[in-house]
What does this fold into?
Amino acid sequence: MNTKIKKIIILNLPCFVFGLMSTKVYKAWRLSEGYEISDKFLNFSDSFSKAFQSPLPSFNIKDLMFGISIAVILRFVIYVKSKNSKKYRKGIEYGSARWGKSTDIEPFIDPVFQNNIILTQTERLMMSNRPKNPKYARNKNVIIVGGSGSGKTRFWLKPNLMQCHSSYVVTDPNGNLQ
It folds into this structure.
């Protein structure tokens, strides 16, 4: 059997079985005596045993529609839950971080040097908002914090200002920037 078909069967079989069981539940609801909902609830357990006497599902059109709708809703819930599942790194424990390599930053660098924000001597960040692969799109905001004399202006601000590739908001309380 093809693995794709096997996967489809495995995913949908529980929904199918649950839908067949739901036809019996709706049959029990139909068979319960009473015209009002409260009367039907009181007699529901008595009709439940009648509905499950036969091993076959109920072939009444209302029962089948109820079973199909329950199966479709269940499959939709499973689909939504699987798409929203978090991505865990199984088998990788706490403390497994490592230093980045030059190959790790390559997708974030534009081949044209002037189209990058200079972060360090070897690391840059592309200015393009729409890279070829959308997972490499990053926020372009940068805040530089450091003590006096740490080289914030000389090593980061002036090289990026000289490129003039975007708009900058620079606060210079000392007035030393010229």
In short: The mean pLDDT is 86. The radius of gyration is 32 Å. The first strand starts at residue 116 and ends at 118. The chain has two domains: 3-83, 102-163.
